[in-house]
Design goal:
The structure holds 2 protein chains of 2 kinds.
Chain A (H helix, E strand, L loop, with lengths): L3 E2 L10 H13 L9 H21 L6 E4 L2 H12 L5 E5 L4 H11 L4 E5 L9 H7 L4 E5 L13 H10 L3 E5 L18 E5 L10 E5 L25 H16 L1 H21 L4 E3 L8 E6 L4 H10 L2 E2 L1 E2 L12 H5 L4 H5 L1 E5 L6 H25 L1
Parallel strand pairs in A: 1-11, 3-4, 3-5, 5-6, 6-7
Antiparallel strand pairs in A: 2-8, 7-8, 9-10, 10-13, 12-13
Helix pairs in contact in A: 1-7, 2-7, 3-4, 8-12, 9-12
Chain B lengths: L4 E5 L4 H12 L3 E8 L3 E2 L6 E2 L6 H13 L4 E5 L1 H17 L6 H21 L3 E3 L4 E5 L4 E5 L16 H4 L2 E2 L7 H10 L21 H8 L1 H4 L5 E4 L5 E5 L22 E6 L4 E5 L5 E12 L7 E7 L7 E8 L2 E11 L6 E6 L2 E9 L3
Helix pairs in contact in B: 1-6, 3-4
Classes of the chains: A alpha/beta, B alpha+beta.
Chain lengths: 379, 362
Amino acid sequence: MKKIYLDIAATTPVDPKVATLMSQVMTQTFGNPSSIHKFGQESHSVIERARLQLATALSCEPGEIIFTGGGSESNNLVLQGILNSGDHIITSAYEHPAILNVIEALQTKGVESTLVNPNKDGVIDCLDVINAIQPNTKLISIMTVNNELGTINPIAKLGEISVENNILFHTDAVQMFGKLPMDLSEIHINFMSMSAHKLYGPKGVGALYIRQGNKLPAILHGGGQENDLRPGTENIPGIAGFGLAAELATENLPTNIENILELEKRFLNALTENSIEFTRHCTSHIPGLMNISFHDVLSKPLLMNLDMEGVAISAGSACASGTLKASKVLLQMGVSEKLASESVRISLGKLHTKDDVDSAIQKIIELITRLKITAEINA
Amino acid sequence: MPKKKVLVAMSGGVDSSVALSLLIDEGYECIGVTMKLWENKDPISNVVRNSNCNTVEAINGAKMVCDRLGVHHYTLDFMDIFKKNVVDDFSKEYLTGRTPNPCVRCNSIVKWDTLLQQADIFGIDYISTGHYARVQHEDNASYLLKGADELKDQSYMLWQINPEALKRTLLPLGEITKSETRDYAKARGLETAKTPESMDLCFVSGDDYSKFLNEIMPEKMTSVTAGNIMDEAGEVVGEHTGFTNYTIGQRKGIGVAFPEPRYVKRINPMDNSIVIARKDAMYADHCYASQLNWFVEPPIEEMATFAQIRYNSKGSNATIVREDDNYRIDFNEPQLAVTPGQSIVFYEGNKLIGGGIIEVNS
């Protein structure tokens, strides 16, 4: 049975070119980047080359990029570094736990927060953010793209709002980077979090964009690596892989987007042609991410049954133990409890083919038909 | 012919791991599930504490074994069903002075009925667990038999399973002993080979029932206060600390001193007293049973059987006497500390033919 992975938004497979480079670096470039000798110099160059690749991809300066252990770490560096007792942060209610749980922890240290709900289109409304501004608002942190819905937030506008109000602006761009163009020379962002494994790079590597002139204190202390913000000998193969992944994603972005949109259309058309009743949530989103409620089919049994048939999708947000609840995000948008418990996330990427989509669709249709019959019998 | 499919309940212990592996050896297509039943939360801080029940370690153990054996694994959240059917009943029974057997209810309602519904959703034929008991499938009925390992036999805990559900049950450990299970797990390199035996109730940490009851229903427990300890003649001989702290047959920790040991004979929530007695007064030659479940035709008038009144007790030949809707069980040998709320299970040789909940009166 061929397995079909339709959960690109959760993580991506490593691009074969990236894997080759990483394996090369791991076996051949082992020097400590801090060492003076040639071994060290080689490793050092690998890191700096990767930094340049990211800077090129984002139209920023290499000096504005630091490598971290992942998106969550980047978020923590910003939130823990900026917010002190008495400060206020505006964020969205549907941020990743790597934002929401940091804020919850900071609240015990006297940090105040306002959580803005997404509107019915799954987007954060700028007016809601403006209305939440207080005299002590120090930071606005709104994700670029929501991980469950794929909706795109008005980042440029939020950047302007933050400048006008003299507030710092952070965006968690983990779900956007590599899937949409991003030009940091055009828009005002103070801090931006990224992760390698969402764009066909390795896990355990992330990056943080820190706009020139902005400073962050370290939250871990040690050797002076990554501008004092990320102590510890660098993850050289991981960083090299991230660099190449970022380059590949940017280079081929228009082609990838076109292909993915084509597959997405094929997928949705097939559902309609087969008279499958469904609701696709949110009108605007990144290519390939579909949040769909199949009417009268609970998400959990659909997900598990599909998995047994070799098709991997996701639903709600999986917690560490892997149990599922109705999508909180959809409930925040005002979607009914019923539809929210029927919602699944299907995400397509650059490695998928028409055949993948066709076989997945066939399995999905078979299962929806069977599950509806079982539900009727049990009822 | 496509392989028959089995949904295997995986606790994360060695028994269910080996059950899964044996079923795969026999050619079944298996899916492993771990049922999330309970979270031991601190009532004040709401912080989740360690408990014996589906810890992260246990779930990880189940996942590792499934992965090693190449089968899918899912964690299913049955916490609401478990709370409603098992924990609430447990608390209610204690408040009425009885000693419930939550594992029996959990098996029939959660591990069998609910799991079978799940199997239907998956389009799966059978369910399986790591219990030490055998299922004998015949043309029109299925029977529970005692496990091959006499010391470990768990059929007593399974009497309440719906006979229809039993038809779709496979218990691969029924034929082997616990030590064979361990050896098998070790030989196959299953990650759960050395998991410790679970002894206590999964949802009560440290086996501290009083603490648990106070946490789960603090309001109701305020009415459980100190009261009289009486002898059988009705003389007050001491003070108890709250009747939920005692079980029938308990000897230690009663808090009264007599030259000859005294046992808790009765718990009377109505007048908040407990009655103690000498050992020789603790025997009963009969009891009644409610909530009966039969795997054979129930007796019309009388039926000879072998009755067991607790897990790991010796049991006795007995006669089940039906009086209209009441079932009275007359023991050939009087039984010690017959405890209302516990299970009485009927056997015919190795075959479990039925069971019920012990009642003192009809």
